[in-house]
Design brief:
alpha+beta, six-stranded mixed beta sheet, two-stranded antiparallel sheet, 3 helices, 8 strands, about 15% helix, globular
Length: about 120
């Protein structure tokens, strides 16, 4: 694990940028909607493909959609319906940082994801 004991911002930033993927996975958390947070007794969860999220910041505020892709290298997610038009007319997905979204519905195909956290 790449732990930094320094409080210097440059070293903190460098540690994030050179972190291995298994550590970067821990950065991919987003807050849960109030109902889900109460149900699972958690404040946030790791975002996975298939989760339904709501964008809270930026040009796509209040837009809801399913997570199409999670990019650990760039620490971003791609959401269905959140696209921009390029100059040549093609449509591309707009990457969003996980801190700018809230999870409204979880994809629970994997039974172990919330089995330990079942609240009700």
């Amino acid at each position: 694990m790449n732990r930094v004991s320094s409080g210097q911002p440059r070293k903190q930033r460098k540690a994030r940028f050179i972190a291995p993927l298994h550590v970067r996975q821990k950065y991919m958390h987003a807050r849960l909607e109030k109902k889900l947070a109460d149900k699972y007794k958690l404040r946030n969860v790791q975002i996975r493909k298939g989760d339904t999220i709501k964008v809270l910041r930026g040009d796509f505020r209040d837009r809801e959609g399913k997570v199409a892709k999670v990019n650990l290298k760039d620490e971003t997610i791609e959401v269905d319906g959140v696209t921009v038009h390029k100059a040549d007319g093609s449509e591309v997905s707009r990457p969003i940082h996980p801190s700018n979204v809230i999870v409204t519905k979880l994809e629970l195909k994997d039974k172990s994801r919330m089995s330990k956290r079942e609240g009700g």
